[in-house]
Write a structure and sequence with these properties.
Elements: E1 8-9, E2 12-13, H1 16-28, H2 34-41, H3 47-56, H4 60-70, H5 77-110, E3 116-118, H6 120-128, E4 139-142, H7 148-157, E5 160-162, H8 168-176, E6 180-185, E7 191-195, H9 209-212, E8 217-221, E9 224-228, H10 231-244, H11 250-262, H12 268-277, H13 281-295, H14 301-309, H15 311-325, E10 330-331, H16 334-339, H17 341-345, H18 350-362, H19 366-371, H20 382-400, E11 405-408, E12 414-417
Parallel strand pairs: 4-7
Antiparallel strand pairs: 1-2, 3-4, 5-6, 6-7, 8-9, 10-11, 11-12
């Protein structure tokens, strides 16, 4: 699929800063954009806005690498110094997390606990070739469900605490009815997202360690060998992850494009077969379309034909592009945020959409658990409590006429007013 030229996207005029960002992402993904980038650098640019945009989309390492490669003469010295400083700070943080990952994996290995690492440093190395080239702020670990409580106890032993403190009577029920939980190191310098599934088990696209381990690969992280999902499984995960988060930043799209460019021997029939088996074909088609149209990803011709035939993916891609680059102020619907309607539209099965509604409306969060403390035997009452709290909040929001709004600045980076917590 031919990538759209970054002057207008879906009929939306791009700022010079947005156009330059897109060209840099495309260049890093394997397209030769040097001539176009050089031409654009000769025009008028708001360098402060450009840096804000790159940070908002979490792609400052890409911008720095591309401009430093062959365009440094056209970039103001102060801008180069700012990018260099921020790049060094990002690398230092990533290095700290990488060594922390090695420490955690050694502790897990000593207890015989298998673990896969996804996103974070493994994605940075597998796709970008270096931990310095991707911004990450936490570590994502996948263990067996039966090992989850043991891993939680081990993390506590080596200096971590759950981000959500619960009475002991709640813990087992709360942890094992969710597939992801957050832990923070005692000094606050590292965060671990511990998973026993890549989605709640009620979804048809649920994947756990036992399903992924036979296809896993090894990735070298700072001299250590780390187990990560196979590249085909990782690609599917990135497309599901992007759909879950409404593809809210260019870094999510860049991850897909750069991974494809780095692994030309991708088993595409295997990717399609797994997408069909896990009812995630719309998520895959949407992710590939965005990577091709915005980041210049190159996919085999038959995959491109299949991707273009997905009309739902075409409509959703238009929504993503408008949300990323439109300069119009748009209200954010509170109910849509709660239900994540965008994510639901990428689901192929009605039962998955129903589970999404139930999870978002009824599954208790830290807010419900902190508002009232019920005896463990009455834990089930937290489910209607959450629905009641959301209903009261919705009524109050309407009565006070304080809807949240998202206002893009001139760079396309969105500013949100009001609370976005559930």
């Amino acid at each position: 699929m031919k990538a759209r030229e970054p002057d207008t996207i879906a009929g939306i005029p791009l700022t010079p800063e947005s156009g330059l960002i897109l060209r840099c992402v495309r260049h890093y993904s394997g397209r030769d954009e040097r001539t176009r980038i050089a031409r654009q650098l000769q025009g008028r640019l708001d360098w402060d806005a450009l840096l804000r945009l790159a940070e908002a989309h979490k792609i400052l390492p890409i911008l720095h690498a591309v401009l430093k490669e062959s365009h440094w003469r056209e970039v103001p010295e102060s801008v180069l110094e700012t990018m260099k400083r921020k790049h060094a700070a990002n690398f230092a943080g990533n290095l700290l997390l990488s060594y922390e990952l090695i420490r955690i994996l050694e502790a897990l290995g000593s207890r015989g606990i298998r673990c896969l690492v996804f996103k974070g440093p493994t994605l940075a190395v597998a796709a970008y070739g270096s931990i310095a080239m991707r911004r990450f702020q936490d570590l994502d670990l996948l263990v067996r469900r039966n090992d989850f409580l043991k891993t939680k106890d081990l993390l506590r032993e080596i200096g971590y605490q759950p981000a959500l403190r619960l009475p002991e009577a709640y813990e087992k029920h709360f942890y094992l009815t969710r597939s992801e939980h957050h832990f923070v190191r005692n000094d606050g310098k590292a965060t671990v997202d511990l998973h026993w599934g890549l989605s709640p088990p009620c979804f048809s696209f649920f994947q756990d360690l036992d399903r992924l381990w036979p296809r896993s690969v090894t990735v070298a992280i700072e001299g250590a060998t780390v187990r990560a999902p196979g590249m085909e499984d990782l690609l599917l995960f990135l497309c599901r992850h992007g759909a879950k988060h409404r593809w809210e930043g260019l870094s999510l799209i860049s991850d897909v494009a750069v991974l494809i460019a780095a692994h030309r021997a991708m088993d595409w029939p295997g990717v399609l077969a797994r997408a069909k088996r896990t009812n995630s074909t719309v998520m895959l088609a949407l992710g590939l379309r965005l990577a091709a149209e915005l980041a210049g990803a190159e996919v085999p011709e038959n995959i491109g034909d299949w991707m273009r035939a997905d009309r739902k993916g075409e409509v959703l891609a238009g929504k993503v592009i408008r949300s990323l680059f439109s300069s119009e102020e748009r209200p954010t619907v509170d109910v849509a945020d709660r239900l994540n309607l965008f994510h639901m539209r990428t689901m192929s099965r009605f039962t998955d959409r129903l589970h999404e509604i139930v999870l978002n409306l009824f599954t208790p969060t830290s807010i419900e658990l902190s508002l009232i403390r019920l005896p463990a035997r009455l834990y089930f009452l937290y489910y209607p409590c959450r629905l009641l709290r959301l209903a009261v909040r919705s009524v109050l929001n309407k009565a006070l006429r304080t809807p949240r709004r998202q206002t893009p600045d001139r760079t396309g980076a969105r500013r949100t007013s009001g609370s976005d917590k559930p």
